[in-house]
Amino acid sequence: MGNHPRLKSRDDVVAGDRFLVPTGPATPQRGVPVPENALPARVRTERAAPWWFGTHGGAGESTLAALVTGSRAAGHAWPLPRDVNDPQPVVLVARTSARGLESARVAATQWAAGDVLGVDLLGLVLMADAPGRLPRALRDLAQLVGGGVPRVWTVPWVEAWRSGDDVVPHAVGVLRRDLTTLLPDGEA
């Protein structure tokens, strides 16, 4: 689960809910080099449960922040705490386009290398970049990227979001429920 003192224990998280069992690494990994094109980081004094880190412009971090109470958009930079002993819960957000998945891969590699101290990475939200099924090459890339983070959530294309409607699809409801389970005191 990482070092976040406010996150529930692993036993609390896996209690009968297969979606919350980490499917990828739960902590940074030894020997992973920091990518040359590492994404920016910014020290944040405010708290969020969780921070949405859009790994590229248009990823959907502000949309998720508007739909999940207590959360905040990180402004396309890793939200680092002033004190690394008080980690910030963070969820990566990326579109399912090649560019979006590549930026998520860079962020996951940066985290795996231990380059972002004070971050407790909860997982990655993949936001559909278009309606319909992903082409095979993008599905394969999404699976590869998802293997580098603790867990992955997928949000389908929501046409109503284009016109500013605050429709909450089932996938976002599941995400909110999962975050409420991962974070104590129903913070999400």
Please explain how this structure is put together.
This protein has about 190 residues and is α/β, with parallel strands linked by helices. Helices cover about 25% and strands about 20% of the residues. The protein has five helices and seven strands. The strands form two sheets. The protein has a five-stranded parallel beta sheet, with helices on both faces. β6, α4 (about 135-145) and β7 form a beta-alpha-beta unit. α3 (about 100-110) packs parallel to α4 (about 135-145). The two termini are about 15 Å apart. Pfam families: DUF6668. InterPro entries: DUF6668.
CATH class: Alpha Beta
SSE string: HEEHEEEHEHEH
Q: How much helicity do the residues have?
A: 25-40%
**N-end to C-end Cα span:** 17 Å
Report strand %: 15-25%
CATH topology descriptor: Rossmann fold
What would CATH call the architecture?
A: 3-Layer(aba) Sandwich
Helix and strand composition category:
alpha/beta
Strand segment count: 7
Q: Could you report the average pLDDT, rounded to the nearest whole number?
A: 89
Rg, alpha carbons: 15 Å
Stretches with pLDDT under 50, minimum 5 residues: 1-18
Number of helices: 5
Largest beta-sheet details: 5 strands, parallel
Strands of the biggest beta sheet: in what spatial order? Answer: 3-2-5-6-7
Number of domains: 1
Tell me, briefly, the overall form: globular
Pfam families: DUF6668
